[in-house]
Q: What sequence folds into this?
């Protein structure tokens, strides 16, 4: 009798469990799983946005064409240079700032908020502010001329192909440095204070404490921050879109998301856009898998 | 010996000063563009490009804000776009809170066959960035007849995996006894959710709310894809259009930016601990 009642109670609970999670199952099926499978499928068709003709199955033809397309490789180059140019300073300076902030007794919280504040702005606003500072008579030219002692020089922040790439990186770095600093601070906060105390008693100075304790124990955090920063950078769109809308040369900053958007919406070529989406997805998936693997093998126990 | 101590004190003090100067210098770099935005929004266009730059406007030009709102064609569509952004971000925040708490509660407090698979499948969607599925998502929206409408702007973002994850993590720690006591008292399962779970989930609801709102406030790509009419656009799309058309009106551009930033800044300064806490929770989840 008791077991029968128990059984029905468990069953009832399981039923309610399914009821509670069902909105999630339905939502993610329609708006996440179906689209990614659809992107994969569309990448094997020749599908146009405004075409009444039923699309044909063309197999890997789209992939072959894209992989032989200079425009695509230019986008890959733009995306990879942007990602590397961005995540390396984000990871290194984020670490330095976090270590310095964590060792402050006073003012740590105010500094965190100050550094984080650009992250709450819209990307379009961030890009717009910098766009005006990058103008020929704008603040950035004045600042650089002052620092380098070259009065009246125009560094062509928005015009030369090298500078416009640096400019987009600067916008992104400014917007996200506070965010990644906070991730590091969380990581540092998890290192038990007793380790530092023991090291101090053993006579370790602050440099040695950093080099022999903080740095090695922060390895998992560093891996996590690096990969999150990389994934974030791969997704960049707003800055490049706004810059090109304001007449910056498109070639140097034609990152893959911008290329996907233009291919789909301007050229109406959904299949080619889908191929690029699938390639972008595979890049991010690879990074996520690496992150998963390293965080599993790197688990530190104190 | 005393010499040693005073020497190490001097080193510590120098280190402290160096650290502080670096942190402050960096803080200045971070804050300059924000100061520039607020200053330039009140300046005459000529003054913004004056060399050397003067930080404080010599004459306050409120007219920048008038032109910002009036827009290129005097249509005042920005007001509508601001309302759209508030409405769309607000709706998405509400649906996300509701749906993620339902799903998070189901995953945290009920045992059923396949629960882990459901959880992992939802977490796996975090690996599908929006940028890679926006084209098929756009096709779904077209097929459902939701293009160029509020439904099209809201429905694809009604829920996100990160919110589910946060809710689940938070509710896992909720004491089981309380729930069982309520069941013995005859409270129905929806009643328990409404009267016990929701009132006790304040902090996690606040975190999910601010992060969702901020993220949707920033959404540019999706409104660009899914809306055609100007009056259906949201703030980021207006910003790009304004910047591309009003080529030389820097003051008005910064006024547009200031207006776009006010709501998120208010949110940030009143609820900053949820922003910061939520970000670090994201990190913890990813690790």
A:
């Amino acid at each position: 009798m008791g077991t029968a009642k128990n059984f029905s109670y468990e069953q009832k609970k399981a039923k309610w469990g399914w009821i509670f999670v069902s909105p999630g199952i339905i939502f993610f099926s329609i708006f996440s799983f179906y689209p990614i499978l659809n992107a994969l499928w569309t990448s094997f068709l020749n599908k146009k946005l405004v075409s009444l003709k039923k699309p044909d199955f063309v197999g890997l033809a789209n992939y072959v064409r894209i992989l032989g397309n200079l425009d695509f490789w230019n986008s890959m180059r733009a995306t990879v240079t942007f990602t590397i140019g961005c995540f390396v300073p984000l990871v290194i300076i984020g670490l330095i700032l976090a270590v310095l902030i964590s060792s402050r007794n006073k003012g740590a919280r105010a500094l965190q908020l100050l550094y984080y504040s650009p992250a709450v702005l819209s990307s379009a606003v961030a890009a717009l502010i910098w766009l005006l500072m990058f103008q020929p008579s704008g603040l950035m030219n004045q600042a650089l001329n002052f620092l380098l002692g070259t009065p009246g020089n125009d560094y062509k922040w928005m015009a030369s192909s090298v500078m416009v790439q640096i400019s987009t990186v600067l916008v992104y770095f400014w917007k996200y440095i506070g965010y990644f600093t906070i991730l590091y601070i969380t990581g540092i906060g998890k290192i038990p204070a007793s380790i530092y105390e023991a090291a101090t008693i053993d006579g370790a100075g602050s440099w040695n404490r950093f080099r022999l304790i903080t740095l090695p124990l922060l390895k998992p955090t560093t891996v996590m921050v690096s990969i999150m920063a990389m994934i974030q950078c791969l997704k960049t769109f707003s800055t490049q879109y706004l810059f090109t809308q304001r007449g910056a040369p498109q070639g140097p900053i034609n990152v893959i998301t911008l290329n996907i958007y233009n291919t789909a919406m301007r050229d109406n070529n959904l299949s080619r856009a889908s191929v690029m989406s699938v390639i972008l997805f595979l890049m991010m998936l690879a990074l996520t898998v690496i992150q998963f693997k390293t965080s599993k093998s790197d688990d530190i126990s104190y | 010996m005393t010499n040693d101590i005073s020497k190490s004190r001097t080193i510590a003090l120098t280190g402290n000063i160096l650290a502080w100067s670096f942190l402050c210098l960096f803080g200045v770099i971070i804050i300059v563009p924000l100061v520039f935005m607020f200053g330039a929004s009140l300046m005459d266009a000529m003054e913004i490009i004056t060399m050397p730059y003067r930080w404080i406007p010599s004459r306050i030009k409120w007219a920048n804000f008038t032109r910002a709102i009036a827009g290129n064609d005097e249509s005042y569509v920005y007001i509508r776009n601001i309302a759209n952004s508030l409405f769309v971000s607000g709706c998405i925040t509400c649906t996300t809170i509701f749906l993620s708490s339902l799903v998070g509660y189901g995953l945290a407090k009920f045992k059923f066959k396949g629960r882990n698979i459901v959880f992992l499948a939802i977490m796996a969607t975090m690996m599908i960035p929006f940028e890679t599925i926006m084209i098929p998502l756009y096709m779904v929206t077209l097929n459902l007849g939701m293009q160029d409408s509020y439904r099209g702007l809201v429905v694809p973002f009604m829920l996100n995996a990160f919110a589910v994850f946060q809710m689940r993590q938070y509710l896992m720690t909720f004491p089981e006894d309380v729930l069982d006591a309520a069941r013995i008292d005859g409270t129905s399962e929806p009643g328990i959710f409404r009267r016990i779970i929701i009132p006790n989930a304040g902090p996690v609801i606040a975190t999910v709310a601010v992060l969702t709102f901020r993220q949707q406030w920033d959404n540019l790509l999706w409104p660009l894809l899914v809306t055609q009419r100007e009056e259906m656009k949201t703030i980021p799309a207006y910003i790009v259009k304004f910047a591309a058309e009003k080529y030389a009106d820097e003051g008005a551009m910064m006024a547009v930016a200031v207006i776009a930033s006010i709501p998120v800044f208010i949110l940030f300064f009143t609820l900053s601990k949820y922003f910061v806490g939520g970000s670090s929770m994201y990190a913890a989840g990813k690790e």
